[in-house]
Amino acid sequence: MKAELEGATILITGATGYIGSVVLEQLLRTTNCAAVYLLLRPKGKAPVQARAEALLKGALFHKVRSSEKLVQKVHVVAGDISLPGLGLSDADRATLLHSVDYIIHCAADIRLEADMQETLSANFEGTRKVLELAAAAGHLKALVHVSSAFVNMNQPRSSIVDEQVYPLKYGHQAVDVEELAQELLALPKPDANSRAATLLQRWHFPNTYTLGKHMSEQLVARYQAKQQLPVAIVRPSLVSAIAGEPYPGYAGNWAGPIGGAAAMAIATSSSYPLVLSEGWNTNLDFLQAHPPPFRHPPPFRISFKHPGRMDATFEPSDAAVLAHRRTMGRRVCTVAALLRLVGRTREAKKLQMAGVYRMLFGAVPEQASTAAAAAAGGGEADLWNTAG
């Protein structure tokens, strides 16, 4: 990988999101690439250059920003995957087409239950615009499309998903995903959501996110076949904290299991502790049906005693749950104080609103619950929470 990226110029979309930012940090710290372009959209009054500077000042880049040579490799272009031509100026587009060797497309709308048209606009049409840029690039070596491990959740339970793109079908006839996307985008929003609900049920997708990302993979495969693009699709699973470099435990957002763990920690989850047991039991069922084909060698091998299954009839002690909530409330107050010391006042207020009420009353009022959910990733996500 290092040899392949020696002297390369790379374009990243979604660099301000968790995955995109980790990719950027790894490229700067572990490779000798020549330059990395970030496609960022203006946000509020902040220009794109200011957003890039704020990104590089983050904790994730603590091993990078001390080197001026590495920081100078980062170049910013203003753009937006929701706009025609990615919103690029003529000059920036010409620069990218002339210089880019690799494109890593991380930008996405990761809301699971977004309106179908919003999902398609960001994840399907946004991907199309990146593919069009890639097809016009003069000497592109590869386009990496970041998908999701859950794009094939419509496959039978406990089945093995191969590294291939599975077509959608009406009976035995394959669906043209471009025609389907245009059909959904042309409908009034309520009609599009109603039609999407029917399709989700028909094809056994759990939400609009997985269907939209599935369709995006098919679009990538179609461009690869027609344009002979050098394409790779990667399917990360649930994204949690970093295990190693640049430092263990770093979590870049509140989505997925990170948000769930945070909500559990501040006692905003009403289903504790069954949620964790259900996750454990599901994983256990799959591993028993499909034993891993390998084991990590020492010193990375982890051994632990299986704690047994917990069925749905389990009922936790009310007194124990209340004690847990109050203990967590006190801890949250402490964390909130520390956040205020480092200038994170808004985050401290959100956490403490939930924590104090749990500690005193064992319940969270609607306003505090909403704030806590937003702080822990449970509220409505920003459209570009993983995008540039």
Account of the protein in words:
This protein is α/β, with parallel strands linked by helices. The protein contains 13 helices and eight strands. It has helices spanning 18-30, 48-56, 68-71, 90-99, 116-136, 177-186, 189-203, 208-227, 256-265, 274-289, 318-341, 345-361, 366-375, and strands at 9-13, 35-40, 74-78, 102-105, 142-146, 169-170, 173-174, 231-234. Strands 3-2-1-4-5-8 form a six-stranded parallel beta sheet, with helices on both faces. Helix 1 links the parallel strand 1 and strand 2 (35-40). Helix 6 packs antiparallel against helix 7. The longest helix is centred in the C-terminal third of the chain and has 24 residues, at 318-341. Residues 270-274 and 357-388 have low confidence and may be disordered.
Task: Supply database-style keywords.
disordered C terminus; 388 residues; alpha/beta; single chain; 8 strands; six-stranded parallel sheet
How many β-strand stretches? 8
**N- and C-termini, Cα separation:** 25 Å
Q: List the uncertain runs.
A: 270-274, 357-388
User: Beta-strand percentage?
Assistant: 5-15%
Question: Which geometry do the CA atoms define?
Answer: globular
Main sheet summary: 6 strands, parallel
How would you state the average pLDDT, rounded? 81
Q: What class do helices, strands and sheet pairing give?
A: alpha/beta
Q: How many helices in DSSP terms?
A: 13
What's the gyration radius in Å? 23 Å
Give the SSE string: EHEHHEHEHEEEHHHEHHHHH
The helix content, as a percent range, equals 40-55%
Main β-sheet, spatial strand arrangement: 3-2-1-4-5-8
Write the layout of secondary structure elements.
Elements: E1 9-13, H1 18-30, E2 35-40, H2 48-56, H3 68-71, E3 74-78, H4 90-99, E4 102-105, H5 116-136, E5 142-146, E6 169-170, E7 173-174, H6 177-186, H7 189-203, H8 208-227, E8 231-234, H9 256-265, H10 274-289, H11 318-341, H12 345-361, H13 366-375
